Amino acid sequence: MRTRPLNPSRRLLACPGWEDDGHVQFDHLQAALQPLGWTCRRANLPDAQWPAAARARVSPAEALALATADFDALNAQEAPGPCVSAVLGFSFGGYIAAHLTGLRNIDMLVLRSPALYPDDTWLQAKESNDVEALRRFRKRVHTPAQVGVLAFGSLFRGHVLLVCSENDEVIPPPVIESYRLAFRHARSLEHVILKSADHQLSDAASQDAYRWEVVRWLIDKTL
Fold first, then answer.
1. Across all residues in the chain, what is the average pLDDT?
2. Which domain of life is it from (predicted)?
3. Contact in structure between 48 and 25 (CB atoms under 8 Å)
4. CATH of the domain at 207
5. Distances (CA, A) of 33 to 29, 64, 199, 214, 221
6. Facing residues of 191 across strands?
7. Which of 65, 90, 147, 177 has the most crowded CB, counting CB atoms within 10 A?
């Protein structure tokens, strides 16, 4: 008698944004995904709950090391069958999540309003960035040849969900377009605009819409 294939083990690492206090949003997402067989973990990245002095010293390179350690811990337990690995990132966490695709085998990537930074700031404390220079940098569309994280994106062959807010006051459209073009060789790419939403998803309707899009997409890609 033929043995029935085992359902894949599903694991999701969520990378929060720099100003993110979204433990509640993560808890809601985790509650929606656990009944579907997902094991979720929130990366220990600098966020709104970190002490200001500690957060001020962290560079993107150090944040990537933290996220990589969390990814490895999440996936350390052996599964009896196949394993599906997903990473989700918001803003600065999206920037880190996109880098992670170049270091680990990832099947699915969710980026919400991912940030973008010049490569020469990689080893600097993130909070030491020149705000005006960064604003000018983000007003232009960049290519994988110009920015390292976009180069990682151009090599990614998994599924990508790119989510942006219609009224995002932090991440302008050229940044989203840079990521969209970088992931053109992905196995699939879906771009969703959250109507009337701001960067932080400060209203419940926007949070619900985002969570619905993520859960819908993950279900679709794991059927």
1. 94
2. Bacteria
3. no
4. 3.40.50.1820
5. 6, 25, 23, 10, 13
6. 162
7. 90
